[in-house]
Amino acid sequence: MNNVPELNVIAWSAAQGDEPPNVLRLANDADPMALADGLAGIGRIELHFPHFTDGRAYSQAYLLRRRLGFEGDLRAIGDVQIDQLLQMARTGFSSAVLNEGLDPADAARHLVRYSGFYQRDLIGT
């Protein structure tokens, strides 16, 4: 049994030009709690990873899901590497755009590699 939440992994090339209405792009130094009264009608929030070592977007995702109850698409953009995807899924992201040149098939294999965790996550597993 795999306890990893669903994560839609998107190739960089497939995400280019994907600008549906009701998308909010949140800077990684912004406080998501400031959006408490402004989430109605937002279909997707994009959280930016300026560099793979900058993990502030993980905290933003957790706050948006757990404290603010955001139920739309929470997308990771920027410097997204395959080895980050598992943590993204566990902190509330529902989709991630891989860096250019990375293969979504490799990402899928990575996500099913782990079936259980010692630590709690967003869904309490």
From TrEMBL:
A Pfam match: DUF934
Family matches, as InterPro entries: UCP030820
Protein name (Swiss-Prot/TrEMBL): DUF934 domain-containing protein
